[in-house]
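cache lookup: miss for this entity combination. No prior model stored, computing from scratch. Input as submitted by user K.M.:
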Amino acid sequence: NAGVTQTPKFQVLKTGQSMTLQCAQDMNHEYMSWYRQDPGMGLRLIHYSVGAGITDQGEVPNGYNVSRSTTEDFPLRLLSAAPSQTSVYFCASSPNLGTLNSPLHFGNGTRLTVT
Amino acid sequence: AQSVAQPEDQVNVAEGNPLTVKCTYSVSGNPYLFWYVQYPNRGLQFLLKYITGDNLVKGSYGFEAEFNKSQTSFHLKKPSALVSDSALYFCAASRGSTLGRLYFGRGTQLTVWP
């Protein structure tokens, strides 16, 4: 049981490049989400999904796309990277579909630098 | 707007002394409250939660938290700190009626010195 797996661990991009951050979970969790962590700002929600085929925006969705074609996978796409997207990105999942009274399970993060 | 505040960026405490990490929330309705811990280069790990019931909840590694509705607070406590407790701590809240959103505080760096 691997939990939540994020790849890659580190990535450097040039401004304007695109890339996909991968997230997979093997716990059959319906709820998955993406956060970014910036110093002094805590974690901010980018996008989330409550099941395959269903996604919604969080606090800071601009510049990011998501899709959820399977229960296991929830990739995050950067369409045209900008230096402001330099951050640590965390994927998290939860077994609880609705009201999040179950804790989130986090991956170990992807550290992204955009130059 | 919904929000969670952790008023201290840093808390320093000597090993063996009690520790408190403060959290206040502004979330409408009856919130669900959580504490998470983050060690360097790792994701967040769940410590404890308050959903309903007893205001004092106990969690992992000897931590506990006290829910105070009148003060809208959910402070994290431990009677006797260990050096290994040094980490970044996050308070989080979700609004029961709001699907899919968990609001995080900015985090408090706890340092326990020997």
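stored under new cache key. The mean pLDDT of chain B is 91.
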